[in-house]
Amino acid sequence: TALSMAGRGAMAQGLEPNTLEQISSYNNFYEFGTGKEDPMRHADAMQIEPWSITVDGMVDNPGEYALADLLDGLDIEERIYRFRCVEAWSMVVPWNGVELADVLDRVGVQSGARFVAFETVVQPDNMPGVRRGVIPFPYIEGLRLDEARHPLTLLATGIYGEPMPKQNGAPIRLVVPWKYGFKSIKSIVRITLTDTMPETTWNNLNAREYGFYSNVNPEVDHPRWSQATERQIGGGLFARRQDTLMFNGYEDEVAALYEGMDLRENY
Amino acid sequence: MASVTLAQRINRAQRHVPAWPIYLIGLGWMGWLFWLGLSGQLGPEPINALERDYGLLTLQLLVATLVVTPLRRFTNVSLIKYRRALGVTAFLFLLAHFLVWAVLDLQSLSRIGAEIVKRPYITIGFAAFVLLIPLAVTSNNLSIRKLGPLVWRRIHKLTYPAILLGAVHFVWLVKGYPWEPFLYLGAIIALLAVRLIPARRPARANPPAGAAPSR
After folding, report:
1. How many domains does chain B have?
2. Confidence band of B201 (pLDDT split at 50, 70, 90)
3. Which domain holds residue B182?
4. Residue A222 per-residue DSSP state
5. Which residues of A touch B172 (CB under 8 A)?
6. Where are the domains of chain A?
7. Cα–Cα distance, A6 to A42 (Å, whole number)
8. What pLDDT is stored for residue A11 in this prediction?
9. Hey, is A114 helix, strand or coil?
10. Mean per-residue pLDDT for A156-168?
């Protein structure tokens, strides 16, 4: 299947996963503050038990699902993916998760649905960044339905076989490896199927800089910085920059989704 | 007149505190941060951490140089003796900030040139750096003597646009609306605006000795 291919492909390309410590100590999770260490420092306060996800919109079986029920019987597999932040740094993460498509099948997507919208939990008492209002909350994201159904798209529940660290988006988060990291929304509490393109947080904040698609693309720069290269974190003070790959290295798998689209226009 | 006494006491005390330790502490701190980055104690992305730390220290020291004059004007506390050391140390941090960015972060001359030309927030950061070079070079008694105090003072007014550019550079590079860069920008604008308040002519019953109106 495409999933094991992705895993094998990652090995074949000699991807060296970052350590769990690196992955869980350098994060953007503005609910806990804008500093890279803020999530590691503050995420501990987030309550993740019990956890339920509201599934609504154009689905056959809407409702509030306990996390375990939503994932019950689904195959949790490991996927070693590149993770490329829009800020031009990257990691390699061995995620554990299920394919989003399998969860969508479970809730029954109706025929008219074309997009999936996601929402992150908001716990003001436990989230200093929310109290300060550094950006509007709840954090919202979205995918086109075909992107959401793509076999590379995960709902991840762990890293390195451990439960997802809170600063990385416990207990369940999206992983879309060919898009900039902010598309991979954390700590999901709502999944909505819809026929209109959903609003997304960064696009609302600055549409010129953050498009709905936000596919990793070395040829389309962020207005304020180049996207041609990136630095994988963990390489120390003298880490070399490396070339950013089209669709973050998943071009063979996903380019067909965007056939005929002007990627400069639809950034 | 307790405040005057306090100011006088501070002014008297600072006669015994030399300015040179500022250079020593500054360079020591700079080296210490570099060592932390080298030994993996600045987190998994030390290049970015150093860039930020050096940049922020530059801004903080420049703000300190901006405080000196209003402080003397409104409280009579004169720390002018330390301003050169603060300014030159700020420049050294700015140089380090620039070098980390150019050598460790971008790693190529063509990339450095392209970024300076193409990215406005880098253009203005670089402009601030360039503006401060003549100030750093002339921050010595010999230059004051050679240039004459009037010319020298005019050159050193470049510090105002440079600091403003530095603050805008900080605001411009962040994502979202964290409060910190806006706080710096606001403080710097306030410190510059204070200089526009016209000095009130004497009128005070008992002007403290040496309280010359200043800009």
Report:
1. 1
2. low
3. 7-196
4. B
5. 224
6. 2-258
7. 33
8. 46
9. coil
10. 98
pLDDT of residue B5: 79
Across the A:B interface, residue pairs with CB atoms under 8 Å apart total 63
CATH of the domain spanning A2-258: 3.90.420.10
CB A175 within 8 A of CB A153: yes
Q: Averaged over A134-161, what is the pLDDT?
A: 97
Report the gap between the CA of B46 and the closest CA in chain A (Å).
6
Is the pLDDT confidence value at A236 over 50? yes
> What amino acid occupies position B109?
L
**What angle, rounded to 10 degrees, do the helices at B83-99 and B20-38 form?**
20
How distant is the Cα of A227 from the closest Cα of chain B, in angstroms?
A: 12
Residue B115 lies in a domain: yes
Is B206 part of any domain? no
Q: How many CB atoms lie within 10 A of CB A102?
A: 15
* A3 has a pLDDT exceeding 80: no
Whole-number pLDDT of residue A14:
77
The rounded Cα B14 to chain-centroid distance in angstroms is 20
Whether ipTM > 0.90 holds is: no
Q: Which residues of A touch B47 (CB under 8 A)?
A: 231, 237, 239
Residue A114 in tokens: 């074309």
- The stretch B43-59 carries a mean pLDDT of 96
Per DSSP, what are the bridge partners of residue A242? A230
Q: B43 contacts in A (CB within 8 Å)?
A: 25-26, 36-37
Contact between residue A48 and residue A166 where contact means Cβ atoms under 8 Å apart: yes
Q: What is the rounded CA–CA span in Å between residue B91 and residue B86? A: 9
CA atoms of A22 and A27, how far apart (whole Å): 9
B114 band by pLDDT with thresholds 50, 70 and 90: very high
Q: Which residues of B make CB contacts under 8 Å with A? A: 34, 37-38, 40, 43-48, 50, 104-107, 111, 114-115, 118-121, 172-179
For A266, the token pair is 């639809």
pLDDT category, B34, cuts 50, 70, 90? very high
Q: Is residue B210 part of a domain?
A: no
The size of chain A, in residues, is: 267
Cα–Cα distance measured from residue A26 to residue A32, given in angstroms and rounded to the nearest whole number:
12
